[in-house]
Design goal:
Blueprint lengths: L20 H9 L1 H11 L8 E7 L6 H17 L4 E8 L5 H6 L7 E7 L12 E7 L10 H4 L17 H25 E10 L13 H18 L5
Parallel strand pairs: 1-2, 1-4, 2-3, 4-5
Length: 237
């Protein structure tokens, strides 16, 4: 059974919409690479003037609209013909699709469709989308390995910090991620049209660099230490 992880919806001060500028900046940094990839790699055999775009893990903030517009601009620049666009916005069924559709750009050049469902499995028909994107969503696993949550297990992950986990814990997560990534790619391979593109954006670490040595890792360590101290004071459990 997969576990559903969703961002905080709505438009309030704690929403993903208000706390996704970092992801938006990284998307903007990849714009030139996206344009070049579409220009040189996309090979659509037009049987109609319809191009389907899919965002897997769209959430409810403005970044998905920016990603879609980048793709549309690049496709129009490449083919320079009258094209009609349809966009599939995919995320977990618990995603805030209400906010997503309420905040769609008024002057958009596409028809919008919501596709609830885990992207670790099939969510679209075979050969149905021409360009897909998954931007800073594929670092999640579909579920936490059960051994890690079992307090009686020798690999129970009792720490929150990046520096606190054992090699055995890391291997369990790594094995789960390999399964999930394989499932994701297998599903997209069936849904992508011949000559289409699947764009994957995400943060990576060079070989030999530990997460605990990065700024995000250090932040997680600090938060983890703080939560452990609060738990020791019986403020939370």
């Amino acid at each position: 059974m997969s576990t559903s992880f969703t961002m905080i919806g709505g438009e309030g001060p704690n929403s993903y919409r208000e706390h996704s500028k970092y992801q938006g900046a990284l998307l903007e940094a990849a714009k030139q690479m996206i344009n070049e990839t579409i220009s040189t790699k996309l090979d659509i055999n037009f049987t109609s003037n319809l191009v389907n775009i899919a965002d897997f893990g769209c959430s409810s903030g403005p970044n998905t609209f920016a990603a879609v517009q980048m793709i549309i601009d690049a496709v129009e620049h490449k083919y320079r013909q009258d094209i009609e666009f349809q966009v599939f916005f995919n995320d977990s069924p618990n995603n805030d699709f209400n906010t997503l559709f309420k905040t769609l750009p008024p002057a958009r050049k596409y028809l919008a469709t919501g596709v609830p469902g885990s992207f670790f499995g099939r969510v679209l028909p075979r050969s149905s989308f021409h360009v897909g994107i998954c931007s800073y969503s594929l670092h999640f696993v579909s579920k936490i390995p059960k051994e890690i949550k079992d307090r009686d297990s020798p690999v129970w992950n009792k720490d929150i910090q990046c520096t606190g986990y054992s090699k055995e814990v890391a291997k369990l997560y790594f094995d789960q991620y390999k399964i999930d990534l394989g499932s994701f790619l297998s599903a997209r391979a069936q849904e992508l049209v011949p000559g289409g593109l699947m764009l994957l954006l995400g943060s990576c670490l060079p070989n030999g660099v530990k997460m605990s040595e990065t700024v995000p890792g250090m932040m997680v360590d600090i938060i983890g230490s703080s939560l452990n101290e609060i738990a020791k004071q019986n403020t939370l459990s």
